[in-house]
Design brief:
Length: 272
């Protein structure tokens, strides 16, 4: 296909192997690649924005493959994409990619993910966007995930990317020839047993360290075709999961289960 202008970000920071592999794959296919990503680890920052302090951005081309233009930004992943779109780029990109994340972004974890939020920022601005994650925190072979992410994005663009669609791709920690087929998936519900470990600092002050233990619920959230597997279940079976997301958070439950709104606004009704 014709060369694309691609913006790439992440939440693991400018030194992460995943983003360097993704940028190299895109540049190797002849695309024009610009990286704007955090200057340090920014995982689990969600869709946070920096409002109280200035943003700084410095060139970091030397960290990436030849031909890649790169900026390291002091802000969050969402800051990075906003700054790129409204200040750093001379032309809007044809595609926004985020990742490759060092670890999974499955199920309801997408609500906390800086990787998904960076891609979502592109979707909000009307751009095709894809988030890609390696579904293991210790796997450092990103070639298969990078190639698959570019394959999916290029073919979606060639077929017509639906408006308002964000794609979330999770790739199991396997070589390309050992992966099960790519499948459309629903989001699972990922619950955690939140374990806050209580500690004491050298000055005798108490602090808490969050180290939640995941409890995978392989049932879906109720959204999406019932015949689709959940993303958690399919990745556990060795297959890459591709989940369609959107910025719209409107509840999909039965409207009949909601009480009349008039009753909610009247104190006499509430007291009965």
């Amino acid at each position: 296909m014709a060369a694309l202008r691609i913006l790439i970000s992440n939440d693991d920071g400018v030194f992460a192997d995943g983003i360097q592999a993704l940028a190299a794959e895109a540049a190797g296919r002849g695309h024009t690649v610009t990286v704007v990503c955090p200057d340090r680890e920014r995982s689990a920052t969600g869709h946070g924005l920096t409002l109280q302090t200035p943003l700084r951005a410095e060139r970091a081309d030397e960290l990436f493959a030849a031909g890649v233009t790169a900026w390291a930004c002091s802000g969050t992943p969402s800051d990075c994409v906003k700054l790129a779109l409204f200040r750093l780029l001379e032309q809007p990109p044809d595609l926004v990619l985020s990742g490759i994340n060092h670890g999974p972004n499955l199920g309801t974890d997408v609500l906390y993910s800086g990787t998904v939020s960076a891609a979502m920022e592109g979707t909000i601005e009307g751009l095709p966007a894809l988030a890609v994650s390696s579904a293991d925190f210790h796997w450092r072979r990103f070639e298969a995930a990078a190639a698959l992410a570019l394959d999916v994005a290029e073919r979606m663009l060639a077929g017509g990317w639906p408006e308002g669609l964000l794609l979330n791709l999770n790739v199991p920690p396997r070589p390309a020839d050992a992966l099960a087929p790519l499948r459309w998936c629903r989001t699972a519900v990922r619950r955690y047993i939140d374990q806050f470990e209580k500690r004491t600092d050298p000055r005798g002050r108490t602090y808490y360290w969050l180290a939640g233990e995941v409890v995978d619920d392989l049932e879906g959230t109720g959204a999406g075709p019932a015949e689709w597997p959940t993303d958690v279940a399919w990745v556990q079976q060795g297959g890459p999961s591709l989940t369609p997301l959107q910025p719209e958070l409107f509840w999909r439950g039965p409207v009949a289960s909601l009480p009349p709104v008039e009753a909610l606004g009247r104190r006499d009704q509430l007291l009965r």
